[in-house]
Amino acid sequence: LTFDQPVTWVDGQVQLASQPDPALSGLKEITGAATYTASSLAAQWSGEKDTLLKGTCTGDFAFHTNDEVNPFIVIDLGQAKPIEAVAIDNRRDMLQDRAASLTLWVSSDNKAWEKVWQAKDTRQRWVAVPERLVSGAMVKGVEARYLKLGLATDAPGTLHLRAVKIFGHPQ
């Protein structure tokens, strides 16, 4: 079997690499010069940590935390930006279920965090659409400088992701 276009494997199905996720339609990647820090890094498993936000990881995952309660990464966009979606690629090989409680929080000051999304299942890729309660209604999209992705569980675990891309509306 050969394909005339690059393909990726998403949620057990072949997807054309040039075919964007419908949830990202009309959005622009705003990850830009963002940086991130991790609650911990297992050095022997984090050789591609600098590829996480660039989407250039060639292995199964870009970084791997130590075994700890509530492992996380914090992404700093450099300034507050409107965020409409976050594409999160889970590790490619085995143990994807370790990210079953993956949660997204946002903050303007890196101190007070608001939960805006949580995974409902284990996937190869999630497209998280952050939502917050405004005047009694859930509203999609948030504005934040910091994004925190982590495991929301009381049991020790490890966090390892392959790529994270942040999207907003074109300006």
The helical percent reads: under 10%
**Uncertain ranges:** 3-7, 9-18
The rounded Rg comes to 16 Å
Largest sheet: 5 strands, antiparallel
Specify the structural class: mainly beta
The number of distinct helices, counting runs of at least 4 residues, comes to: 0
Strand order of the largest sheet: 4-6-13-8-9
What percent of residues are in strands? over 45%
Report the end-to-end length measured between terminal Cα atoms: 41 Å
Shape: globular
Q: Please trace the helix and strand order, writing H or E for each element.
A: EEEEEEEEEEEEEEE
Task: Give me the count of strands.
Answer: 15
- Average pLDDT number: 88
Report on the structure:
- There is one protein chain.
- This protein is an all-beta fold and 171 residues long.
- It is 0% helix and 45% strand.
- The protein is built from no helices and 15 strands.
- A hairpin with a 2-residue loop joins strand 1 (7-10) and strand 2.
Which descriptors would you attach to this protein?
disordered N terminus, globular, four-stranded antiparallel β-sheet, mainly beta, 171 residues, 45% strand, five-stranded antiparallel β-sheet
SSE layout and pairing:
Blueprint: E1 7-10, E2 13-16, E3 28-29, E4 35-38, E5 68-69, E6 72-83, E7 85-90, E8 102-107, E9 114-118, E10 125-128, E11 131-134, E12 137-140, E13 142-151, E14 156-157, E15 161-168
Antiparallel strand pairs: 1-2, 3-15, 4-6, 5-14, 6-13, 7-10, 7-15, 8-9, 8-13, 11-12
